[in-house]
Design a protein that fits this description.
By secondary structure, the chain is mostly helical. Helices cover about 45% and strands about 5% of the residues. Helix 1 packs across helix 11.
Length: about 290
Amino acid sequence: LAQGSLARTTLQTQQWQYNINHPLPVMTSSGEWCILYHAVNFKGRAEFLRLMLEDAGVGYQESSDNLYGPTGMCDAFRAAGSDQDGLAPGAEDYVAADTSPWPVMFPPILHHKPPNSNEVFINQTPAMMRYLATCLGYLPEGAMDTARADQIMLDVNDVMTEVNLAFHPVDAKAGYETQKEQADASAKKYASTRLLVWLGHFEKLVHRLQPEGDGPLFGTMTYADFALFHVLDAAEAQFSGGLFGEAWQEAKIPTLRKWKAWVSSRPNLAAYFVSDRRRGWLGTSMM
């Protein structure tokens, strides 16, 4: 996200507080699960985690406290001000300071304080989804299904990376608005080419695993189901008309559409989708 997009909003959960004067984050709430993410009013990559927690009926909190700056928890932001000319003054020392519960580069971060066990503090979407799956009962059974579920989850991660680059073709770290003309052209091209290949690939996978599009990919819900659902939901929202074209409508993906609708009908997810916890879409980058 561009720095200008990081303004705090009323979405911040005040019950989960981090004391910046303490060497480690201090949780003052009794909550077991927290998602640390930018205080924004759109879904972003934290939505992958929300979907799993919501489907499981597990309560969680969200916070953006103490993410930024030279003493924040994210090493990427401790080096703020660095550019192609080199590191910002003091950045190397700030990054070297081992003061977070576990070293992380950037949000979203999953913070788990299980009863009578060590707290867990991790980032990277696939790692967080795997951890949630282990705790909430969303792991595949057997080595083959686990490998296939990993493939799907990592495919989804590749799509999200490609889309982000399509919307930031000049500078991946700069905001969309700073490169809007090039980004609009790049995103339109991506939607009419590479995205259709991905959708066709996912159609084939789902048809192989669930020909009627009416059940979990591997017999029971796994992290692969949540990952694939979200990337499809984001693609539909981003590429269903308007500036970036109608790739979602044009794609030949009948099984994929049925399967997405089936996932949406799961009771806890359906309730989440109409709740005030559900954020809107940014409008770019499938966020």
